[in-house]
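One thing: mind reviewing this one?
=====
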Amino acid sequence: MVSKRFVLAQTAELLNPSVEALVEPTDEELAAEVLAGRSQLFALIYRRYFPRAFRLASGICGNREQADDLTQEIFLRVYQGLSGFKGNSTFSTWFYRIALNHCLNYCRREKWKKLWLRPETLEAVNRLDSQSEADLLEREIQVRVRVALQSLKPESRIMVILKDIEGFTYQEIADRLECAPGTVASVVSRARKLLAQKLSNLKGNV
């Protein structure tokens, strides 16, 4: 059954497409509508979650092209598994579980090693040591941070991304990864120490 909230949102958009609808459908309502046969509305879910999914994929891959491919794979998994959303948690939590599981599977296939540990990548990092121009400082920092992040174990990397990039609380991360908040806090703390050690030569520049 179509909810009143959903009808209001669609009506407002039709009457004035240039103005944001005053009442937007929730993620859960959109999911129900897609399952009811209005598959075109999955585009709204895609629009809402693409930035978050892409940031997660970027943190995992460290490469824009591969991150885009991984993001598309995530949404394909979400679309194909939408019937599995039973409303026992928020749609956001359910979405992240699928996204995180897919990212972990990606890491376990060790595709990221082929990208980040190939000789030309390490040579590019080493070449930065001999360049002192101010306009290369930002690039150097970005490359070294990415390489340091990629050196973490997949589970640790994902937790750091969710905590320090996405801004989730330990409890929110635990809900999405189905583990204890204390476990998340411990893993993030260890990962931060490892990153600090690997990036110690950048002190004063960041």
In short: DSSP finds eleven helices and no strands in the chain. Residues 4-15, 18-22, 115-122, 128-132 have pLDDT under 50 and may be disordered.
